Amino acid sequence: MISLKHIKKSYFIGERELPILKGIDLEIGQGEFVILMGVSGSGKTTLMNIVGLLDKQTEGEYEFMGKSIDGLEDEGLAAFRNMHIGFVFQQFFLLPYLNAIENVLIPIVYSKKQIKHPREKARQLLGKFGLAERTHNKPSQLSGGEQQRVAIARALINDPDLILADEPTGALDSKTGNEIMELFCVLNEEGKTVIVVTHDPKLASFGKRLIRIEDGAISQDITT
Amino acid sequence: MGLSLKILQLREFLEEIFKILYYYRGRVIFSVTGVALGILSICIIITTIDGANKKARDIFEVLGPDSIMVFGGGERQRAARVRTSSLTFRDADSLYRVEGIYDLMKVYQVRNVMMKYKGEKWQTQVVGSTTNYFESFSWGFQSGSVFTGSDYDSAEAVCVIGAKVYDELFHGENALGKAILVGKLPTKVVGVLEEKGGGMGGPNIDDRVIMPLTTVMSRIANEKRYLGMMRLKTNRDIDKTVEDVRTVLRNNHGLRGTAEDDFTIRSSKDIMKFVTVISGQLFLFLGLAAIVALVVSGFVLANLFYLTIQERRKDIGIRRAYGATRRGILLSFLFESIVTTLIGGIAGILLSVMLGGTFEKLFDIPMLFSYKVVVFALLFSFLTGLLSGLKPALRASRIEPIEAIRG
Asked: Domains in chain A, start-ordered, CATH in brackets?
């Protein structure tokens, strides 16, 4: 599903090149549950941004679902993200002026897919995550765990192939964090490919595959 | 892509904009108020200029395009509101001989004369004139008719009363043949005029009593020599006639060389010019105010928008991550700006409708509302939104999703 070949990424500060990723080769198949672990500054977030089509590599080739995405420009990338990827972030990033169900529906506004009865589907997703009573609450009226579950529902509304979560438990207490990770396990069992990016070693046990990033390169890749 | 999806997306898009505006209402109100004030002044400009033009056309119509008026007293005395009598019957006779003049009406007007009939009292103006007064204004009669030439020659106490005076004194009763007191002079009513209506900002045109010039001068005003004004009609070029009239009057009054005129000539052309100058000044003054208000509110809007975008970087980032293109972000911010100014524009139109009447009374400027006002107001508010929103929206569209999300 995801195929990265010799991916390099550098930032340039004036004339000086600052390498972040130093040649990553990585294959991730359909239905995997990957924990991408590394300390801050290891390059894990940069790698996630490239995998999530939010950033472009300086060198190397990237194929997503058998298609090279290297030549795609803004519109093409946006459409690809919309169709195939659901994002979950540490700070939830719910829009404060929309209620829970409206936040879940955001990807629909940009969707090229024909999702049947999106409102009904959003309600079902929120119900599945125990938020049936919260559909019309604003984010400010929800707890952290509830907000993150709304964010996950939003990631799922458009039927993506891949869930990409960046430190999804970072802003939550450990009990709530574990509940969120359990949720990802359920989604994975239902067939979604899940990648969770984290620095927290306690999350390692939730995945089926652990990839460690150190200093811009993969230092460990174990399937459990 | 299905049509129903498109419609749903459009609806969500528009709904979201209104939710955003509501959420940021504190700052939206500032922008809306600014735009509303600008649009209010634009509405007032357009309506007053239209009103002034209509007034000019009305005056033109009443006077006729071939009219020349001559008043006693020079320009300066008139400006100082000193009425100097200088026109005589001899002047009128000489003017009859000027080439092109085919009609001459002599007028002597007395203001604030008390009328009495039975218990009723009414103060009005008395116009002494010649029998052609009524044809000149193409003024018809409700009842009765014009006084005769012999009434004029022998200064009979007869009068024709305007519709307003008739209502005030007679309340619908028959007035013909009745005697009313004009000042102290018992006068017989021989005619009642049709209602003309339209005060045109000045005194009510139906609020007057018309009597033979001779009667007014000798029996009411006790004036033996001087007329108030004359109205001439010419079938020659109006400017040339004015020149000739001036020469004749200066000759008659013994004015030589650089001596100032002791009379004032106004042609219908002058009146048009006057109205044009007035509406030009209005346009300048109000136009400046409107442009300043709109530019200021445009800047305020642009600045508030920049702030908004800083605050909403995450918003932009998440939308981009979920498939919004740069163009999509640009459009939604631009729409937000335009919707804000359109709300301001509509508020401005409503304000101008509400305040228009007050303004009209306060400054004695007639206003003419039309669809044109609405179109202009909406167009201007649209442009304000577009121009002030463009730069911030472009900037928003250039924000990279990873920058925005990194926080």
From this structure: 30-56+71-223 (3.40.50.300)
Q: Which helix (H) or strand (E) holds A135?
A: none
Question: Are B139 and B236 contained in the same domain?
Answer: yes
Using one digit for the tens of pLDDT, what is the confidence trace for B278-334? 777 777 877 787 788 788 888 888 888 888 888 888 889 999 999 899 998 999 999
Q: Does residue B377 lie within any of the structural domains?
A: yes
User: Which A residues 77-136 touch B at CB under 8 Å?
Assistant: 78-79, 81-83, 87, 89, 91, 93, 95-98, 102, 105-112, 114-115, 118
Residue B151 in tokens: 């009434």
Tokens 């929103």, residue located? B389
Final residue before a domain boundary, out of B235, B261, B287: B261
Q: How far apart are CA B333 and CA B339, in angstroms?
A: 10
Q: Any long-range contacts for B111-120 (C-beta under 8 Å, 24+ apart)?
A: B113/B182, B113/B183, B113/B209, B113/B220, B114/B181, B114/B183, B115/B165, B115/B168, B115/B169, B115/B180, B115/B181, B115/B182, B115/B209, B116/B180, B116/B181, B117/B169, B117/B170, B117/B178, B117/B180, B117/B181, B120/B168, B120/B169, B120/B170, B120/B171
For chain B, give the percent of residues with pLDDT over 90.
32
Q: If contacts are CB pairs under 8 Å, which of residues 14-33 in chain B contact chain A?
A: 16, 19-20, 22-24
Instruction: Answer with the one of B261, B282, B306 that is the final residue of a domain.
Output: B261
Residues A69-97 have pLDDT tens digits of 888 888 889 989 999 999 999 989 999 99
Dist CA B338 CA B386 (whole Å): 6
Which of A96, A111, A115 is nearest residue B323 as measured by Cβ atoms?
A111
Overall domain count for chain B? 2
- Taking only the tens place, the pLDDT of each residue in A164-181 is 999 999 899 999 999 999
Whether residues B334 and B378 fall in one domain: yes
Considering the domain architecture, whether residues B245 and B122 belong to the same structural domain is answered as yes
Count other C-beta atoms under 10 Å from residue B127's C-beta.
21
Q: Is residue B257 included in any domain, yes or no?
A: yes
Q: What pLDDT shows up at residue B205? A: 80
What are the angstrom distances between the C-alpha of A157 and each of A65, A86, A122, A126, A151? 20, 8, 6, 10, 10
Establish if B71 belongs to a structural domain: no
Residues B190 and B337 in one domain: no
Same domain, B319 and B385: yes
**DSSP string spanning B195-225?**
P----TTSS-TTSEEEEEHHHIIIIIS--SS
Question: Whole-model pTM above 0.80?
Answer: no
Using CA atoms, how far residue B199 sits from A178, B257, B389, in Å, is 84, 41, 46
B91 lies in the same domain as B225: yes
Residue B318 contacts residue A110 (beta carbons within 8 Å): no
Q: Examine residue B269 and state whether it is found in any structural domain, yes or no.
A: no
Same domain, B190 and B215: yes
Residue B331 near chain A (CB below 8 Å) = no
Element (H or E) spanning B155, and its range? none
C-beta separation of B315 from B401 below 8 A: no
Q: Taking CB atoms and an 8 Å limit, are B322 and A106 in contact across chains?
A: yes
- Per the structure, the complete domain to which residue B37 belongs is given by 14-58+274-406
B205 and B116, same structural domain?
yes
Q: Which helix (H) or strand (E) is B314 found in, with range? A: helix B313-321
Sign for the pseudo-dihedral over CA of B212, B218, B219, B220: positive
